[in-house]
C-alpha cells in the first residue's frame, strides 16, 4: 500500500489517529504505535488492516517533523524523579525532566517544557523547563495555559510595538486627502456595555428610491488598511494571529492597543478614518444601489444595545430624553431594519434562537455568576445593517472579478442530510428537508418547533447537519444566510479577512489590483485544506490553478484554521472555569434538563447555572438502556423509562476532572423520576394489553373469514362434500366427529 502523510492527533485514552493531508478518512494508531510519536507530530504512515467497520488502521513508517512548540503541564516530583504531566492529555506520556533542568520551578507549578529527547518505542520523552507560569490556582492561569496550549500568539514582536508607537495619536491633515468628509453625518456606534473597540458606525435617513419610499443606510467601518500596510511588521503579526481571541476578563487582540482601542476605534466625538458603504434600501428591504468610498467620520454618540432597545421600546422614556437629538435617527434605523427583516424572511435565511452565556468573574478570576446573553432588537438591527454591507462588498468584488476571500457556508452533506431526514421523520413533525434542501426549509422547521421543549435539540440537529463556514477564494454562496455571495467587511480590527477585503475594495476603486504577499502567506505553517465543498468544484478551477488563486486559498485556510483555534481556546477556558466552579459544589443536588442523549449517557444542563455535565449510562439504574439514534433518546428495556432531550431530572455533582474539563453527575431518585418510571411501566402494560386484544381480534376475524369461504364452497368442516339439503335435514351427531384420515405422502 502507498505511504500516507499526515499529522498525529492523540487521544486521552492512549491511542491516536493520523489526520491525513489528502482529507481522506483518518488512520487509527494503536497505543503501541503512539509510544514512539507525540500528539501533533508530522508522520508518514501505511495502512496495515481494516477493522470490522471498514476503518483503516496504520503503522508509522517515519517521523517527518517533531512539533517544536512548548508543552504545558504541571511539574511533579515522584519517587525522586522529576516529570511533567502534560495539561493536554492527548500527549499520552509524561515527560521526564533531569534534576538540573527544572529551572527555578517547584513541584505542583505549571511550566512550559521543551523536548530534548523525543519519545521512542522503549523510552519516555525527556525535556527541560523553559518557562514557569506559576501556581495552578493563580488568577488568570487558565488563560495563560490556553494561549500556550493552542499556540495563540500573545506577544507582539518588538518591531510591531515600535511601529505602533510611531503612529500618530490623531489623524493628520495628510490622512484626510482623497476622502469624503462625513463628519457632519450623525453616525453612531451601538455595541455591548463592555466593548472597548468600536469598528462600525451606522446612520439612516428616509430617501426616495425612484418614486417609492426607501432609506439611505450608511455603514462606516474603521479604515485599518490605512495604518496596516502589506509587508510591515504590523501586518505580519496581524496575519499570524488572523483574529482576536476573547476570554472572560481578557482579550488577545489582533492589533496593538494603540490601533484597536485608539486610532482605529470609532470613539465618540473624535475624527476617524473609515471605509463607507452607502446604500439605498427599498421599502421591501432590497438593496437598490450602493457605493464604497474612503471617508473621514465623527461618531456622534456611543450607544449600548440595551440603551437603544429601551429607546425603541419607549420614545418618551428617560433613555430617550437623554438622547433626544438622535431618537429620530434610531427610529429610521429601526424602520430600515424592519424592511431588511422582511427581505430576510422572503429570502428564506435561517435564524435560530440560541442561548449564549456570559461568565462574570470576580477580582480573583473565579466565576461569580453565569448569565444568559439576551439578544434584543438592537442586536438584530446592527446585525442586519452589517449583513447588508457585507453582501454589497461581496457583490462589488465579484462584479469586478477580483480575487479575494469569501465567507462560504455549505449546506448538508449527503450523509448528514439523510441522518437529519430520519431524525425529523421519527419526531413525527410532518416537516422534513428535500433531497436538494433550501435554507427556507430549515427556517420553516425552526419556526415550527421554537416553542417545543426539545426545540434546542432540534435546532442543534439542524445546525450540525450543515458544514462549517470557511474563508475561501472560491465563492459558493452562504447557505445559512441564503446569499449567492457573501464576505466579511465589517470587523477589520479583529478579523484579518476583513482587512484583506478592505484592501481589495480600495484597489478596485483605484483601478488597480491587490496582490497577496507570497512571502507573508508562505511564511506561516501550512493550514490543511481538506474536503472542498462540492459546490466549489466548478469555481475552484478558475482560481486554484493560478498562482494568485493558490495564495488566496492558502490565506483562507490559514484564517479559517486560526478562527477555529480561537474558538477552541475560548471554549477550553470557559470549561476550565466551570469545572473549577463546580468543584466547590461537589455533593450538591441540582435540577436540570437533558440537553443531549448519547450511547454512553446523558448530558444534563443545570437550571440557572448553564453548566453541563454527564450522567454516565451506568448511573441510570440497574437495567439495560438502549440508545435510539433516530429519536436521540435512551430507553430502559425492562421499565421502558425514557430519557430524551428536554426531560426534567435531578442530579448530584459526583466528580469534577479539572484536567479533562469534565463534570460528572449522579442521578438522584426522587418522586418525579419514580413517577416517570411508574408511568413508563403503565404504558408498557397498556401496550401489552393492547397487543393481546389486537391479536385475539385478528384470530377471530381470520376464523370468520375461513368459515365464510367454507360455507360458500359447500364443504363440511372435515373437507368432505355434502348434500346441502340432506345436511339440513339430518339430526345433530352426538359426540365428537370422527377424525379424518391423514393424506398419503407423495
What is the topology?
Blueprint: E1 4-10, E2 16-20, E3 27-29, H1 31-34, E4 42-50, E5 56-65, E6 71-78, E7 81-86, E8 95-97, E9 110-117, E10 126-134, H2 141-149, H3 158-165, E11 180-181, E12 188-191, E13 200-209, E14 212-222, H4 233-241, E15 245-247, E16 250-252, H5 257-263, E17 271-282, E18 287-298, E19 301-304, H6 305-313, H7 318-322, H8 327-347, E20 356-361, E21 367-373, H9 377-400, E22 406-408, H10 414-427, H11 439-449, H12 455-465, E23 470-472, H13 496-509, H14 518-523, H15 536-544, H16 547-583, E24 589-598, E25 601-606, E26 612-616, E27 625-628, E28 633-636, E29 642-644, E30 648-657, E31 662-667, H17 671-713, H18 724-729
Parallel strand pairs: 11-18, 12-19, 26-31
Antiparallel strand pairs: 1-2, 1-4, 2-3, 4-5, 6-7, 6-9, 7-8, 9-10, 13-14, 14-17, 15-16, 17-18, 20-21, 22-23, 24-25, 24-30, 25-26, 27-28, 28-29, 30-31
Helix pairs in contact: 2-16, 8-9, 9-13, 10-12
Helix-strand category? alpha+beta
Largest sheet: 5 strands, antiparallel
Strand order of the largest sheet: 3-2-1-4-5
Distinct helical segment count: 18
Strand content: 25-35%
Shape: globular
Rg over alpha carbons: 33 Å
**Helicity level, as a percent range?**
25-40%
Number of strands: 31
Q: Output mean pLDDT.
A: 86
Q: Termini separation (Å)? A: 60 Å
Q: What ranges have pLDDT less than 50 throughout 5 or more consecutive residues?
A: 529-545, 671-676, 713-746
Amino acid at each position: 500500500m502507498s505511504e500516507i502523510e499526515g499529522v498525529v492527533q492523540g487521544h486521552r485514552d492512549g491511542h491516536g489517529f493520523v489526520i491525513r493531508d489528502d482529507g481522506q478518512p483518518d488512520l487509527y494508531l494503536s497505543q503501541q504505535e503512539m509510544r514512539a510519536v507525540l500528539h501533533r507530530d508530522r508522520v508518514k504512515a501505511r495502512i496495515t488492516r481494516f477493522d470490522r467497520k471498514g476503518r483503516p488502521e496504520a503503522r508509522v513508517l517515519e517521523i517527518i517533523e517533531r512539533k517544536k512548540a512548548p508543552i504545558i503541564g504541571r511539574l511533579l516530583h515522584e519517587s525522586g524523579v522529576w516529570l511533567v504531566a502534560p495539561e493536554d492529555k492527548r500527549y499520552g506520556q509524561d515527560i521526564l525532566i533531569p534534576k538540573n533542568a527544572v529551572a527555578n520551578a517547584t513541584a505542583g507549578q505549571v511550566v512550559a517544557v521543551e523536548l530534548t529527547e523525543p519519545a521512542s518505542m522503549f523510552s519516555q520523552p525527556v525535556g527541560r523547563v523553559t518557562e514557569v507560569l506559576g501556581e495552578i490556582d493563580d488568577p488568570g492561569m487558565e488563560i495563560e495555559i490556553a494561549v500556550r496550549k493552542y499556540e495563540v500568539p500573545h506577544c507582539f514582536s518588538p518591531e510591531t510595538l515600535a511601529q505602533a508607537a510611531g503612529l500618530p495619536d490623531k489623524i493628520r491633515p495628510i490622512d484626510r486627502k482623497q476622502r469624503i468628509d462625513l463628519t457632519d453625518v450623525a453616525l453612531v456606534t451601538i455595541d455591548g456595555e463592555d466593548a472597548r473597540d468600536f469598528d462600525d458606525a451606522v446612520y439612516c435617513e428616509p430617501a426616495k428610491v425612484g418614486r417609492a419610499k426607501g432609506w439611505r443606510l450608511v455603514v462606516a467601518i474603521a479604515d485599518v488598511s490605512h495604518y496596516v500596510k502589506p509587508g510591515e511588521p504590523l501586518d505580519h503579526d496581524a496575519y499570524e494571529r488572523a483574529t482576536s481571541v476573547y476570554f472572560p476578563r481578557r482579550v488577545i487582540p489582533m492589533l496593538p492597543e494603540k490601533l484597536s482601542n485608539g486610532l482605529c476605534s470609532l470613539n465618540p466625538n473624535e475624527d476617524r478614518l473609515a471605509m463607507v458603504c452607502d446604500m439605498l434600501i427599498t421599502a421591501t428591504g432590497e438593496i437598490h444601489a450602493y457605493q464604497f468610498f474612503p471617508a473621514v467620520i465623527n461618531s456622534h454618540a456611543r450607544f449600548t444595545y440595551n440603551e437603544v432597545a429601551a429607546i425603541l421600546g419607549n420614545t418618551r422614556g428617560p433613555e430617550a430624553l437623554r438622547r433626544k437629538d438622535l431618537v429620530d435617527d434610531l427610529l429610521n434605523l429601526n424602520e430600515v431594519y424592519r424592511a431588511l427583516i422582511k427581505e430576510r424572511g422572503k429570502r428564506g435565511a435561517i435564524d435560530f434562537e440560541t442561548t449564549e452565556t456570559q461568565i462574570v468573574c470576580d477580582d480573583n478570576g473565579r466565576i461569580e455568576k453565569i448569565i444568559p446573553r439576551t439578544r434584543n432588537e438592537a442586536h438584530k438591527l446592527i446585525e442586519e445593517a452589517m449583513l447588508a454591507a457585507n453582501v454589497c462588498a461581496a457583490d462589488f468584488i465579484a462584479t469586478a472579478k477580483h480575487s479575494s476571500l469569501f465567507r462560504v457556508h455549505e449546506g448538508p452533506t449527503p450523509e448528514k442530510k439523510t441522518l437529519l431526514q430520519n431524525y425529523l421523520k421519527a419526531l413525527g413533525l410532518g416537516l422534513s428537508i428535500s433531497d436538494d434542501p433550501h435554507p427556507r426549509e430549515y427556517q420553516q422547521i425552526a419556526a415550527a418547533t421554537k416553542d417545543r421543549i426539545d426545540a434546542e435539540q432540534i435546532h442543534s440537529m439542524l445546525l450540525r447537519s450543515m458544514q462549517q463556514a470557511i474563508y475561501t477564494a472560491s465563492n459558493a454562496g452562504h447557505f445559512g444566510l441564503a446569499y449567492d455571495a457573501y464576505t466579511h467587511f465589517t470587523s477589520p480590527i479583529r478579523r484579518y479577512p476583513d482587512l484583506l477585503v478592505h484592501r481589495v475594495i480600495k484597489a478596485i476603486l483605484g483601478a488597480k489590483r491587490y496582490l497577496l504577499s507570497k512571502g507573508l502567506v508562505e511564511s506561516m505553517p501550512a493550514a490543511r485544506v481538506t474536503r472542498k465543498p462540492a459546490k466549489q468544484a466548478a469555481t475552484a478551477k478558475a482560481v486554484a490553478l493560478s498562482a494568485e488563486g493558490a495564495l488566496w486559498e492558502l490565506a483562507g485556510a490559514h484564517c479559517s484554521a486560526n478562527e477555529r483555534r480561537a474558538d477552541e481556546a475560548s471554549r477550553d477556558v470557559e470549561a476550565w472555569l466551570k469545572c473549577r466552579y463546580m468543584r466547590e459544589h461537589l455533593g450538591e443536588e441540582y435540577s436540570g434538563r437533558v440537553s443531549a442523549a448519547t450511547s454512553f449517557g446523558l448530558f444534563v444542563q443545570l437550571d440557572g447555572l448553564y453548566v453541563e455535565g454527564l450522567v454516565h449510562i451506568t448511573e441510570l439504574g440497574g437495567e439495560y438502556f438502549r440508545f435510539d439514534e433516530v429519536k436521540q433518546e435512551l430507553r430502559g428495556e425492562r421499565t421502558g423509562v425514557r430519557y430524551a432531550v428536554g426531560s426534567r431530572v435531578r442530579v448530584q455533582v459526583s466528580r469534577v476532572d479539572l484536567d479533562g474539563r469534565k463534570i460528572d453527575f449522579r442521578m438522584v431518585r426522587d418522586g418525579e423520576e419514580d413517577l416517570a418510571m411508574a408511568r413508563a411501566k403503565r404504558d408498557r402494560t397498556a401496550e401489552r394489553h393492547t397487543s393481546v386484544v389486537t391479536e385475539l381480534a385478528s384470530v377471530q376475524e381470520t376464523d370468520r373469514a375461513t368459515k365464510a369461504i367454507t360455507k360458500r364452497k359447500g364443504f363440511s368442516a372435515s373437507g368432505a362434500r355434502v348434500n346441502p339439503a340432506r345436511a339440513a335435514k339430518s339430526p345433530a351427531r352426538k359426540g365428537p366427529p370422527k377424525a379424518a384420515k391423514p393424506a398419503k405422502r407423495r
